[in-house]
Amino acid sequence: MSVDKITIIVPCYNEEEVLPMFWARVPRVLADIDGCSFSYIFVNDGSHDGTLDELRRLSTEEDSVSYISFSRNFGKEAAMLAGLDRADGDAVVLMDADLQHPPELIAEMVKWWREGYDDIAAKRADRADEGFIKGHVTNFFYYCLQKCSRFEVQRNVGDFRLLDRRCVMALRLMREEQRYTKGLFTWIGYRKKEIPFHVAPRAGGKTTWNYFSLMNLALEGITSYSMAPLRLSSVLGFGVSILSLCYMVFVFARAMLYGDPVAGYPTIMTVLLFLGGVQLISLGIIGEYLGRVFNESKKRPLYLIDEIDGERVRYETRVEPVEKIIRK
Ligand code: UDP
Ligand code: MG
Questions:
Q1: What would the pLDDT profile of 175-193 be if each residue is shown by its tens digit?
Q2: Which residues of 279-295 are buried (b: 16+ CB within 10 A; e: fewer)?
Q3: Which of 98, 103, 92, 112 is nearest to 162 (CA)?
Q4: Has this prediction a pTM greater than 0.85?
Q5: Residues with CB under 6 A from ligand 1
């Protein structure tokens, strides 16, 4: 039986505290999976603590470990992409460094992968750790996202997943600046499978997400995923115009029939404010998409690498696309 090469990609941002725990646990769990050889790519996403030193040490001690270190914090999405860009396994597994993603699940993912599935995602069986409000807000977000899009949105599914080589290749093709990876996973299609799991509490360190960043992520999700809000503002504008037209006819007829005693300040104010509101909302939505176009049109690289496995990286020339240099 041939050995399947699987690359584990781990984005790390200030994970100095949990990395030793990660390394103490994950390889031991994975050793039980037959017919697979695992290698690890850690991506240091501009950490401010000793994460990089930890990774340097790990990669010199262990043959299966390599690391990429960014020149600054580029975000988890970019970190995952950098891992995908360098992964050469038959499949990759994306997982967090904080052990919230139980490595025991990988055995099951591999099993489904061997049965022919391309994208096996871990689906959270509960969101108990999140509290009442966050849970409901998340549900509402998924509801909106699903309403906005043509294809099936995967609910409560995070980045913890196993991807076949062909999914990796497909994801590499998508070089958009504003990456909403979950939307990208859905977009590529292929044969998907969801397996349930319980999210473990963080093994150490602390989360970098707060309500504000989650709201940003939600907006990003919807606007990078669909044009529905733009359409909504056109529909709204159209609807309001028709209503205003009817109202105009009504006011005009009334003035004709009964005279016009110049009252109507409240109606004018109401209509004025309402229309003003609708216009502002529509402008905001257009601005949201325009900003997106602005960002994409700059065509910047999605991340810059400072160091790979102890070697300093220098981008020699912009003539050759940076993406190509990275892939060498
Ligand atoms: N992460 C990253 N860059 C960032 C923020 C987070 O690479 O800017 C990594 C982090 O090290 C962890 C994973 O993304 O491995 C998930 O982050 P976190 O645990 O903070 O998020 P949560 O589990 O609370 O959603
Ligand atoms: Mg976490």
A1: 887 777 777 888 888 888 8
A2: eeebeebeeeeeebeee
A3: 92
A4: no
A5: 11-13, 15, 45, 73, 75-76, 79, 96-98, 100, 207-209
